[in-house]
Amino acid sequence: MKKFAKKMCGFLAIACVLGICGCDTAPASNSALGFYLDTVITITGYADKATLENAVALCGEYEKVFSRTVKGSDVWRINHGEGSPVQVCDEMAELLTIALEVCEKSGGALDITIAPASDLWDFKSEQPKIPDRDQLERAAKLVDYTKLKLEGDVVTMPAGMAIDLGAVAKGYIADKAEEYLKEQGVTSAILNIGGNVVALGSKPDGRKWSIGIQDPEKENGKYGYSVMVADKSVVTSGIYQRGFDKDGVRYHHILDRATGWPVQNGLASVTIIADSSAMADAMSTACFALGRDRGMSFAEEMGVQAVFIGTDGKVSCTPALEGKLEKTE
Fold it and tell me: Quick one: average pLDDT of 220-235?
């Protein structure tokens, strides 16, 4: 397998041939739109449109590596390795290193081997069903990140186990898209990778970006709070994103690794603000699973800012955000 980095070199070489590497005059604001990773991707920035479009296309290239469903992707090969060592590209090794760090430090609150359990849930179905309890119990026994071994660029995992990078891949890809834009000389942009928001720099006039935090009780796009950021990533995990209601219970995509059932701890969402979008992505899931008190402590331990919103509407945040969280109308 050729290294993914080599593919990226070719991609960026094409970009340079197209003349998107910057210019002497300050560009106007432009936007680019795409659909990758099963989500809408929007990049708006003070750069020429071709540069932004190439950043969006870059997300599609990474999808070919991190997707579970694309045959031959690194994730697909790991999940079909049947216990044999699998060599992966440098980017996959880097992503797994980040994810496993959060898995370990959170005590498994984040576990990227959750796939056997998550595969039994279909939150997109028009008629979603609750999985068979016995099946879910058996699947949960296959969830154990400590059995996944990463040595350099070689991954080994017991047969029957499978990884799901849904809690970290979008963030990592957002970081890579931001990195690409910086290499092209872009100093001001907003990247939205399916709700994973990256604020590259500040606005041209020096003001910070205002990033909305979804009100879990309202329809998508209705913000309850906002934060002002520059050179930061803002990522939210919430029960409203993917799930269904049945008999008064909200069944959502954030699963308890020990049982395979959706986490029920009184939280509606957790938003993380961090330098790295990959870290913010992983931490939002981990802190949600840990619950408000333990999640708050873990966020501080890891040096990120966090906002917790409960199903009762109660809002709390890490000390660094005190007085900086703005309520929207």
Answer: 92
Q: Which of 220, 229, 176, 226 is nearest to 202 (CA)?
A: 229
CA 319 – CA 317 distance, rounded (Å): 6
Alpha carbon distance 157, 148 (integer Å): 5
What would the pLDDT profile of 168-185 be if each residue is shown by its tens digit? 999 999 999 999 999 999
Q: What is the pLDDT of residues 71-127, one digit of tens each?
A: 999 999 999 999 999 999 999 999 999 999 999 999 999 999 999 999 999 998 888
Q: Is 209 helix (H, G, I), strand (E, B) or coil?
A: strand
d(CA 122, CA 76): 19
Q: The sheet that has 223-229: what strands, in order across it? A: 209-214, 223-229, 326-327
d(CA 193, CA 228): 19
Between CA 75 and CA 39 the distance in angstroms is 18
3-state helix, strand, coil in the chain (%, to 5): 35, 25, 40
Q: What is the DSSP string of 220-253?
A: TT-EEEEEEESSEEEEEEETTTSEEEETTEEEES
Q: What is the pLDDT of residue 73?
A: 96
pLDDT of residue 24 exceeding 50, the answer is: no
Q: Give the model confidence (pLDDT) of 147-169 as tens digits.
A: 999 999 999 999 999 999 999 99
What is the rounded distance in angstroms from the CA atom of residue 209 to the CA atom of residue 227? Answer: 8
| Nearest CA among 244, 226, 243, 241 for reference residue 307 | 226
Contact 181/57 with Cβ under 8 angstroms?
A: no
